[in-house]
């Protein structure tokens, strides 16, 4: 009687272990796995070089990427020095607006401030930094706008007396900072080059 109980216990334990093993194996093969994190298409970045752009009717010149094209601002054709640095591959543009100063620098500074901080509703952060060109004849502020705001970068440079140039980076796409980040970084490098190479005529 004692031997049969021990034998039955042995079989019972073996069956229990086998059942547990099958349950664990079944759970590991379950299709109810955790979802994959969201991914984005890889965006290849072309090799670029820079060339000086000097519009005949405007009192400035700068270096732009050879993959970008210059397009007049169709909404304001009367403003000959309002133009866009266009990236057809990325469906994005750097909107440039130029103003001849007439003792109204504070007004233009306030306008820039207002245009930047209207993005606070969607922006995660707005980081300003001082910028200037290579010979320091122009200085200003560069605003890095993080988050799903419509505009990713805004900046202005001025000599404080005669010239005021403002720029803003926009993409013709739904704002999604994570998916656009590689292209934003690519265009930021071009904006830095534009500012550094800016020359007044």
Can you walk me through this structure?
The chain has 201 residues and is α+β, with helices and mostly antiparallel strands. The protein contains three helices and ten strands. It has helices spanning 2-28, 105-117, 177-197; strands at 50-53, 60-65, 69-72, 83-87, 92-100, 123-132, 139-147, 151-158, 163-171, 199-200. The strands form two sheets. Strands 3-4-5-9-8-7-6 form a seven-stranded antiparallel β-sheet, with helices on both faces.
Q: Keyphrases for this structure?
A:
single chain, 3 helices, elongated, alpha+beta, about 200 residues, 7-stranded antiparallel β-sheet
**Contiguous helical run count:** 3
Structural class: alpha+beta
Biggest beta sheet attributes: 7 strands, antiparallel
The best one-word shape is elongated
Output the radius of gyration.
30 Å
* Helical percentage: 25-40%
The low-pLDDT segments are none
Kindly report the spatial arrangement of strands forming the biggest sheet: 3-4-5-9-8-7-6
